[in-house]
Amino acid sequence: MNRTKITRQEAITISIELWEELAETGGDQDAKDAWPGWEQYGGRMRNSCALCQYGYAHRRAAESDCSHCPYYLKYGGCQKNDRTVFQRWLLVQTPRTRQKYARLGVEQLKALLED
């Protein structure tokens, strides 16, 4: 499925699958990049993120990838904004703390499905 365009629903669903795994394992960025689930979707997506893939595919020339990202539009940036759970997950050092933030991220992602 690593195609140029994926739907919003697909992007959120793939993201939930990925982050549920990280919430279970406490995996770090390397684990996110190497997630076995990427293979069933045609390989790793932009920034190892289905939402980035979605945003990139739907942007116009002058827009950033984030312009159409459902997570960004509701919660804020995930890389440059240290207040989001995904940025906190990226910065913490222990698997247990990464599990905590990944679980919080899963809850936010599930809320996106309801929007």
Number of helices: 6
What is the multimeric organization of the chains shown? single chain
Ends: how far apart? 24 Å
Class of secondary structure makeup: mainly alpha
Poorly predicted tracts of residues: none
Helix content: 55-70%
Q: Report the portion of residues in β strands.
A: under 5%
Rg value: 13 Å
Main sheet? none
Instruction: Count structural domains.
Output: 1
> What's the SSE pattern?
HHHHHH
| Strands, count | 0
Description of the structure:
The protein is mainly alpha-helical and 115 residues long. The protein has one domain (8-114). 57% of the residues lie in helices and 0% in strands. It is built from six helices and no strands. Helix 1 packs antiparallel against helix 6 and helix 5 runs antiparallel to helix 6 (95-114). The longest helix is centred in the last third of the chain and has 20 residues, at 95-114.
Topology:
Elements: H1 8-25, H2 29-33, H3 50-58, H4 70-75, H5 85-91, H6 95-114
In short:
The chain is mainly alpha-helical and 115 residues long. The protein has helices spanning 8-25, 29-33, 50-58, 70-75, 85-91, 95-114. The longest helix has 20 residues, at 95-114.
List keywords for this structure.
0% strand; 115 residues; 57% helix; mainly alpha; single chain
